[in-house]
C-alpha cells in the first residue's frame, strides 16, 4: 500500500478457505485487491476468488456468484482427448447453474506471488493481474446484490484490500459541470459533465491528504487528455497523458509540469511502463502528500511530482480542470462525480 491511504479497509494474512462480508459494500469505482502466493505443495491445483451474493458458498444450494475468478494449474487431462486445463476461467453462478465460461491464458506460476485487482464498474468488472489488464467481465448480476468475498484452493493470502470511496446516496444532482465547492458540506453528484470540466476547489485548495479519483476509457482514436490543478491561470500541477498512435508511431507519455508567471517550466517524463491502453478502462488517482503529488493507475504507483518553489503552494489552488481534444475527449469519458467536504480528503469519480 502507498503512504497516501488512510484507514484502508483490509484483511491481512487470512486462512484459506476464507469468506467475509465486503467491507463498505460494493459500488462502481470500488476495487478489490488480493495479494497472495500460489501454493505448489498442496493437493489442490486450482484456486478461486468469488464475489458472492450471500454466505452460502458451497453445497447444492449456493448463493449466486457475480464473479468467479478461477486460475487452474491441472497437471493432467481429464480424458485422453483433452489437454490439462491451465487457463484462468471467469464465470458466474445464477440459481445454482454456471453460466458461459470466459477464458484467458494463465500467466501465474506455482510458488510465485501475484496481485489480482478487480475494479467494479457500472457495466462490468475489470480484472488486472500483476499490474496488467487481464480481462473484462460484463455483469450478469446487479452489483448491489454482491455481499461477500470467498477464497479457496491452492493459495496463501497475504492481503485483501478494498479501495475506493462510496458516494453518499443523499447527494443532490447538479447539471452544471463548472461547480463551486466553497459552500459544500456534504457529498454531491454531478451527472455527465462536459469537457472541459472545471471544478472550484475549497478554501484550502488541493492540500496534502486530498485526492482526486477518475475512472476513464480512452477511445481508440483519442490523442490525449490532461488534468490540471491551478491557482487562477497558474499551473501548480499539469499532467498531460499523450496516448500512443500507431500511425505516426508516437509512444505514450505522461508529461508533468508547472508554470511560473505563465511560463512553462521543465517537463518531467520519467516513467516505467505506460499504463493506459486505447479502449481499455483504467482508474487514476492523484493524491497530494507532504512533498508533492503521487499518481496511481489501476492501484499501482506510476509517477510522482514534487511541489515546485516557483509555483503557488497547493493550498492556494482554486480550480481543478480536465481538458482534451474537442470532439474526442468529450466522448472519451463516461461521467459520474462525487465530492465530500469537509473531510481530510475529497474523491472525484468519473465513470
UniProtKB/TrEMBL annotation:
InterPro entries hit by this protein: ConA-like_dom_sf, Galectin-like, Galectin_CRD
Pfam family, one: Gal-bind_lectin
Gene3D superfamilies found in the cross-reference section: 2.60.120.200
GO molecular function per UniProt: carbohydrate binding
Keyword list, A-Z: Lectin
Domain Galectin residue range list: 18-163, 198-336
Protein name per its UniProtKB record: Galectin
Provenance organism: Heterodera schachtii
Amino acid at each position: 500500500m502507498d503512504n497516501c491511504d488512510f484507514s484502508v479497509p483490509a484483511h491481512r494474512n487470512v486462512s484459506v478457505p476464507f469468506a467475509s462480508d465486503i467491507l463498505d459494500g460494493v459500488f462502481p469505482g470500488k476495487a478489490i485487491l488480493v495479494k497472495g502466493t500460489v501454493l505448489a505443495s498442496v493437493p489442490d491445483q486450482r484456486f478461486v476468488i468469488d464475489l458472492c451474493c450471500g454466505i452460502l458458498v458451497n453445497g447444492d444450494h449456493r448463493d449466486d456468484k457475480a464473479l468467479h475468478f478461477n486460475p487452474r494449474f491441472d497437471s493432467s487431462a481429464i480424458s485422453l482427448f483433452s489437454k490439462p486445463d491451465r487457463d484462468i476461467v471467469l464465470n458466474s453462478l445464477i440459481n445454482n447453474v454456471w453460466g458461459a465460461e470466459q477464458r484467458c491464458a494463465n500467466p501465474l506460476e506455482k510458488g510465485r506471488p501475484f496481485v489480482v485487482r478487480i475494479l467494479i464498474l457500472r457495466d462490468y468488472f475489470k480484472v488486472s493481474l500483476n499490474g496488467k489488464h487481464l480481462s473484462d467481465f460484463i455483469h450478469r448480476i446487479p452489483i448491489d446484490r454482491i455481499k461477500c468475498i470467498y477464497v479457496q484452493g491452492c493459495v496463501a493470502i497475504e492481503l485483501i484490500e478494498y479501495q475506493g470511496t462510496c458516494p453518499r446516496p443523499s447527494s443532490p444532482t447538479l447539471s452544471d459541470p463548472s461547480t463551486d465547492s466553497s459552500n459544500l458540506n456534504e457529498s454531491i453528484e454531478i451527472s455527465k459533465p462536459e469537457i472541459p470540466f472545471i471544478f472550484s476547489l475549497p478554501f484550502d485548495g488541493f492540500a496534502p491528504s486530498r485526492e482526486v479519483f477518475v475512472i476513464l476509457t480512452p477511445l481508440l482514436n483519442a490523442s490525449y487528455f490532461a488534468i490540471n490543478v491551478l491557482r487562477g491561470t497558474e499551473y501548480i500541477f499539469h499532467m498531460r497523458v499523450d496516448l500512443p498512435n500507431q500511425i505516426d508511431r508516437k509512444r505514450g507519455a505522461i508529461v508533468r509540469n508547472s508554470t511560473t508567471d505563465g511560463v512553462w517550466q521543465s517537463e518531467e517524463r520519467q516513467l516505467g511502463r505506460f499504463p493506459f491502453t486505447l479502449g481499455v478502462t483504467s482508474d487514476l488517482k492523484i493524491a497530494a502528500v507532504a512533498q508533492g503529488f503521487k499518481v496511481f493507475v489501476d492501484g499501482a504507483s506510476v509517477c510522482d511530482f514534487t511541489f515546485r518553489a516557483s509555483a503557488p503552494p497547493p493550498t492556494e489552488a482554486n480550480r481543478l480542470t480536465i481538458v482534451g481534444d474537442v470532439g474526442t475527449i468529450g466522448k472519451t469519458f463516461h461521467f459520474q462525480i462525487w465530492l465530500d467536504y469537509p473531510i481530510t480528503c475529497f474523491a472525484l469519480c468519473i465513470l
